[in-house]
Amino acid sequence: MPAMLTPVPFSFPHPAPMGYLSSFSVVVAQLDLGSGETPQQLFRDFTLWKLLQAAIAVALAYGLLSTAESINTWLAHQVPSRFRLLTKQSVPLLKGIILVCTVVFVVNLFIKLSPSNVIALTGTLAVGLGFAFKDYISSIIAGVVALFETPYRMGDRVKIGQHYGEVVQYGLRNIKLKTPDDNTVTIPHNRIWTEAVSNANDGALEAQVVSDFYFGHGVDVECVIRILYQAAYTSKYTQLKLPILVVMDEKPWGTHFKLKCYPMDAQNEFVYKTDLIRRAKRAFSQYDLPYPVFATDDRNQLGENFSDGL
Amino acid sequence: MIIQQIQSWFTQAQAQTLNLVDKGSALPEAVAIHLLRQIDLLPAHPAHLEAVHTALDEAMLRLKQTEKAPNHLVVLASPTEDIPCVLRHALNQWREQHLWQVNVVEQLTSTAEPAAMLDGLKQEITSRIQASKYARMLIVIPRLENCFLRCIHGLEGVEWLRDTILANRSHFWLVGCNHWAWEYLDRVCQLKAYFDAVIQLPTLSGEQLQSWFSPVTTGVLLDWSTADADEQADRSQQYFKALADTALGLSRVAAGLWVNSLRYPPDREDNAAPLPSLTKTELRVARARCPDLPKLQAAERFLLFSLLLHGKMTLPRLALSLGETQGLIQAQARTLRQAGIIREQQQQFSVRPAHYPQLRLDLANSNFLIPQEP
Fold this sequence. Notes:
Shape of chain A: elongated
Largest sheet of chain B: 5 strands, parallel
Helix content of chain B: 40-55%
Oligomer: heterodimer
Helix content of chain A: 40-55%
Number of helices of chain B: 15
Number of strands of chain A: 10
Strand order of the largest sheet of chain A: 6-5-4-3-7
Radius of gyration of chain A: 29 Å
Strand content of chain B: 5-15%
């Protein structure tokens, strides 16, 4: 017979760990395991050997996790570029499998994982953890969901909030971004519940690079567009299999050009942008192209956002 | 690329069944260079000449039948093949049978200035057209990859040539180009939309390579690791078949791999002459395989891709193409030359053909724009 809870009045469990443990013991004491099993038989015997096994399992899991990550990082640099991201993206799943196997093994050492026990335990855990570890569990669940929905993957270049960088680590609770300034930013997974994640490459090796150029109203538009296209076509970094586009917009203070193109490897995005701008400016210098002249009113608009969806 | 990799594994597995003993020391560089030079002096392969003749005849016939037929023929080949040599030999035979005046634009400028390159190209072609007393000419551009640079304004030469060829229908244009450059120029100048009369030089089979090499191999004493004459003939045939597969059917690549597969016998005395008479010294034939590529840096890949795009380049043109200073490129080029991946001849750098198959695979896996091999 399935376990039943005999209703007894008890106070709402305190969210503090000690309060949680006391509520846990109260609930366990109320379990009627139906088939004559006592609550104490929910737990297996605590022996030194089992504790040792658990410790070994945890240590082994820790070692496997570290080794898997190190080997994967090494392997990602050995394989050809087009397999680099695929290799990196296998790490979170591998780590998840190791963790799940370890947790199941350790829990099974001490608790009889029969269906009725699992149901009773998860109910208790949900109440306790819902308050004590709400955000932590939310992040873990968000991490599992992110594995399937893939708002970001290893090697992706993402912007979350004000932070932009490459996903260099995919942990149980968070991801780590390496920013262009070589900072590491830790972002919990549960940010995906409430914030938009802007992903530049979504698992691909290439990510679009947008270079902005500003000229006065009297600029020879055809000349600028021709130079910008040539700058993209002739750059050694350009991925010619993907489209190259020059768009322009009129501003009160001048004309704004955007060159949109892709490098062969998103890791080169800043070097690529520098190469494009450097060579374009060298070509511009051969022509007498007017640059924007800002009037006093225009200076007040300098804080405007140039990323207006072109 | 995956199919090519699998095919190369099968080829290597097949080659291992040849029981060719891979013992002995590699040939000294002087001997290797001597053998390669002998191969360079060989005439173009008859299969290549026939392909050019056939395509040229068909194009001329079409042009005779209708004025709207294409007035051009583009001949594509691998960057390692000597397309100017093929066109030269093909036209030497062809012009004897046809009444067209053939005008080969040989001396295209090798300047690193895009404006000077465009002016030079215009002057060269325009002066030849104006100086000719023939109403119709066959104008040959042996190396289209010499007509552009990967820099701003560096594509104007090809664009001008494209427009001139289409506008100047009174002459017939024969253009040679390697298919890496052709693929690149199609992406940036949409050449395929303008030029539809295009042929690829065919790849060579083992038998074709064996017969083409025979003037050189008969002058060398080869040891096939067997004394039986029939077995030698059989091993020779299988060897060249494996060589053709490994070399992707490319003659210059096959030449490089063949020379690399020759060994001095292990019992050769250390004080023996470094340049022995090749008709008296037995050279052991080992399994032909592509030399291993060292681990390449990203900058080296860009340099190698540039060389494959243009076939051969001087240092200033290479630096301009890569958008870097000559000092930096020179250092990278020296490193690659020391590794044996590139060579320098008459101040021009080019990729050693023996490395081409592995290099092609490496660049494809590094997301470079690589055309399909025929």
